[in-house]
Amino acid sequence: MIEGSAADSRGHEEVLSGVHVVGLRGELFETAQQLKSDIIKSAALAEDEKRLSDDIVDKMHAEGLYNLWVPTSLGGADVDPLTTLKLLEEIASYDASTAWALMIGIEMNGFISNYAPDSVIRKFFSGEGKAISGGVVMPGGSLEQDGEEYTATGLWPFGSGCQHATWMLGSCILMEDEMPVMGSSGNPELHVAMFPKDMIYINDTWRTLGMKGTGSHHWGVKDQRIGADQVWPITRTALRKNKVLGFPWAVLFALTKASVAMGIAKATVEHYRKWSMSTQPFGSNYFISEDSGTQIEFAKRYALFQSARAFLFGTIRDIWEKVQQGQEIDEDTIALGHLAAVKSSEDAYQVVTDLFYLSGASASIYDKKPLQKLLRDMTTARSHIALSHRLYEASGASLLGGNPVAIMPFWDLNYK
Questions:
Q1: Where are the domains of the chain?
Q2: How far apart are the first and last CA of the chain?
Q3: 267 near 92, Cβ under 8 Å?
Q4: 146 beta partners
Q5: Residues whose CB falls within 8 Å of the CB of residue 362, separated by 6 or more in sequence, listed in order
């Protein structure tokens, strides 16, 4: 856990001139608790409008939460992954959409901070307005160089937070004479492109079962010209380094999603506990929590939740210790990381669905019932490709000497 403020963590490291990063204003989990009531109150409006409220975004930005993975060389807090993912779990227990949109901002702000050149960093962290990014690492666009600029066209799905982001990132295939430029591997060269908000358009496509407040619409650009400094190869070596850079990116990308799922399960467990202790079955004089059958079934789900949580955060802690000690992140470690993400989220999903059905129709199926939203959010979050059931197959293949990349292409994606 971080103690003190971001300023305390910077030491005497010189910060890049012309850069204005909003650092942490206080201890992380105290900040989360202070925002709790506002996040809960705004959740219904976020679901209706399919985006986070400007008020919540402004408050999280003012507290420095979007800059947790910005390195100290830029004035960021550079928070370790275990602390960050526990924070995401905590905020997801208030509202999953808020945690998810924040998660994307943390990931993308950290990515920009590591790889964008100084000229772009100064534009992004100019101090004029908010510095919040979003984006999609899977290719959805094309780039063609024209002198000192590139022309970009593309359409990307799952643009979580695109309505409040000030910049968006998209992976693009590099083109020349309308043909893909092929890399040494025989595959098209992929480049990351950064677009300020006024260059993008948003298609209203986020009509989903759950996680509605994330506003994960399709977004795109059409024949937009951007400076060469806003484009770089996806294989670029980092220009700066934050703490999470040594963590296998594909694994970390999955574990952040699983942490949000764990927060949904945490909220479900606590809701069911309070509901059962304050609700009497029709025509009875006892509380549901006093029923022996209820006690047995709740205990089983509570144990499943705690074991899933221990597997998730224990694995994150173990991998992080290897990174800190400079140990090799071998194939078994990558497999374990993916398994922790998919298995813990699967068990969290089981906890939510079981407690939903154990509650009965009157307590669960109606629109305004918390359990209905928790089930919808969990079902949608668990559908993310980073939590796909195919990770079992890929993990098994890796552990038994096979080729996991043939099953899940992003298996060992990493940035240096």
A1: 6-124, 133-233, 247-406
A2: 26
A3: yes
A4: 149
A5: none
Which two structure tokens, joined as six digits, stand for 337? 């990381």
* CA atoms of 35 and 404, how far apart (whole Å): 41
pLDDT tens sequence across 273-312: 999 999 999 989 999 999 999 999 999 999 999 999 999 9
Pick the closest to residue 197 from 141, 129, 139, 127 (CA basis): 129
Structure tokens at 314: 């224990």
Compute and round to an integer the Cα radius of gyration of the chain.
Answer: 22
85 neighbors 29 (Cβ within 8 angstroms): no
CATH H-level superfamily of 133-233: Butyryl-CoA Dehydrogenase, subunit A, domain 2 (2.40.110.10)
User: For the domain 247-406, what is the CATH superfamily, name and number?
Assistant: Butyryl-CoA Dehydrogenase, subunit A, domain 3 (1.20.140.10)
- Report the amino acid identity of residue 45: L
Tell me the per-residue pLDDT of 344-379, one tens digit each, with 9 for 90 and over.
Answer: 999 999 999 999 999 999 999 999 999 999 999 999
User: For 374, how many CA atoms within 13 A lie in the half-sphere containing its CB?
Assistant: 31
pTM of the model: 0.94
Q: Superfamily assignment of 6-124 in CATH? A: Acyl-CoA dehydrogenase/oxidase, N-terminal domain (1.10.540.10)
Instruction: Give the span between the Cα atoms of 409 and 404, in whole angstroms.
Output: 8
408's CB contacts (< 8 A; 6+ apart) are: 388, 390, 391, 394
Please spell the DSSP secondary structure of 195-218, one letter per residue.
EEGGG-EEE-----SS-GGG--EE
Q: Which two tokens stand for residue 383?
A: 């559908």
Residues 6+ apart with CB under 8 A from 292: none
